[in-house]
Amino acid sequence: MNDVLDVALRLLIVFAVFMVVPLVVGQAEHKVMAHMQGRLGPMYAGGFHGWAQLVADGVKFAQKEDVVPAEADRRIFQMAPAVALLPYLLVIVAIPIGPGEGAVGQVVDAGIFFVLAVMGVGVLGSLMAGWASANKFSLLGGLRTAAQLLAYELPMLLAAASVAMAAGTVSLPGILNAFEWWWLPWQIVGALVFFVAGLAELQRPPFDMPVADSEIIFGAYTEYTGLRFALFLLAEYAGIVVLCGLTTVLFLGGWHGPFGADGLGWVWTLLKTGVLAFVVIWLRVTYPRLREDQLQKLAWTTLIPLALAQIALTGIVKVAIN
Amino acid sequence: MPPIPGSGLAKGLAVTLRTMTKRTVTAQYPDVQPELPPRTRGVIGLFEENCTVCMLCARECPDWCIYIDSHKETVPPAAPGGRERSRNVLDRFAIDFALCMYCGICIEVCPFDALFWSPEFEYAETDIHELTHERDKLREWMWTVPEPPALDPGAEEPKEIAAARKTADKLRAQEEREAQEAREAQETRETQEAREAAESPEDRSDRAAEQEGQE
Ligand code: SF4
Ligand code: SF4
Q1: Which ligand is closest in space to the CA of residue B100?
Q2: Which ligand 2 atom minimizes the distance to the CA of B52?
Q3: pTM for the whole thing?
Q4: Tell me: the pLDDT tens digits for A162-185?
């Protein structure tokens, strides 16, 4: 009975985090992007500097009609948003935010594998949406998503593998327990590759070719309305949270910090995740969209060689230490 | 020297970060009224007391959006035996702001200073026909016309003021001259009186003595 309660409580907390943190990131994006463009951003909803803008957006989306195109593959079309969103929920369950049993939804032994595999499933949602919409723009978007997934999953895996090699374990808490501060410069290239590849996998600008609105409307999401569309948007922000959290855990030492690592480890995790989320927004505001060929070129000719070099470096240093 | 690879990317990041720390340019209009320069072309005010119904504005308006109706009245002669005068009386003066393109030509051509720009701009209507504003509305907008901006230091004096000053100076000079003359006349009169007054007691005693002598 107690176990059931424990599990239920943990799931509830993870779910709450899953609902709240992406909204915070979304609101931060509204505001940061606005100020980076010399604007104010939302100012009215909720009174104080438009803090409730996303809540209002959610209400608006919920009121809209849920349209399924006549030619669409109904069931797949309706399932796609859930497929896009749920994997990120599962990933959040496995990310440790502090030391000890209490600070992680569920300890998974093969943490890295689990996390990366499940994140890959998230992209499937876009593929399903693109195919099932019976719309050429959606199909193009879906195919671009697929190409992007193929290109960027590899450097991401390689970079993650480098950390796993360094730590000698694939469990996320295990990696963090083995973390030393000098891993930071040691794994910095891997961190950059991981972060950039993750961005590309989330289809965040500047890697938003699959939803390039000026050429293919909104890619795989063109036909979606109302709540289902909102779920896709939520998936994007949940993806940012997951990517930043993972980068924090794998490369930035998670709960380790210059001080207060014992009691306040989770603060460090949140802080690092927040800074990374800011960087995600910052990149979006700064850079124009990459063209499809540039996108592929970046993955195959830059990121993958860099990731391989990182693995080689990790191996050499590891042997030298031993 | 070739640029360091990635320096362009870093520069882009620096630009956005710097913009974030600066003040935003957003105008929070309905909450905060904008500060408009005095020559803002908001709406056209009519100072109808100055209008002589010469119709120049209506004729020059490129959009033909000024509507003027008037009639003639005869005014009785000012002096008895004079001639009767006729005078234009304004019946209607309206500007269709749905057509107006805010070129300002009407204001430029008005020879009697009856049209003015006002910075007032909140006169949107829900129906396009209601954008034709009549003379009472146009007259009301005159109250929102700001004072003309001050002249540059060292600028030439405006002609009107120069003319007014000249007349005033002339008037003052004339008044002074008159006052001077009056004072002089007064003085001469006073001295004469004083002399008479000084003379008179002796005269009287003399005369009295003469009279006594005669007796
Ligand atoms: S501003 Fe131009 S368009 Fe408008 S009423 Fe005057 S002359 Fe006509
Ligand atoms: S030009 Fe001036 S004086 Fe003549 S009708 Fe127009 S407003 Fe009146």
Answers
A1: 1
A2: 3
A3: 0.72
A4: 888 888 888 888 888 778 778 888
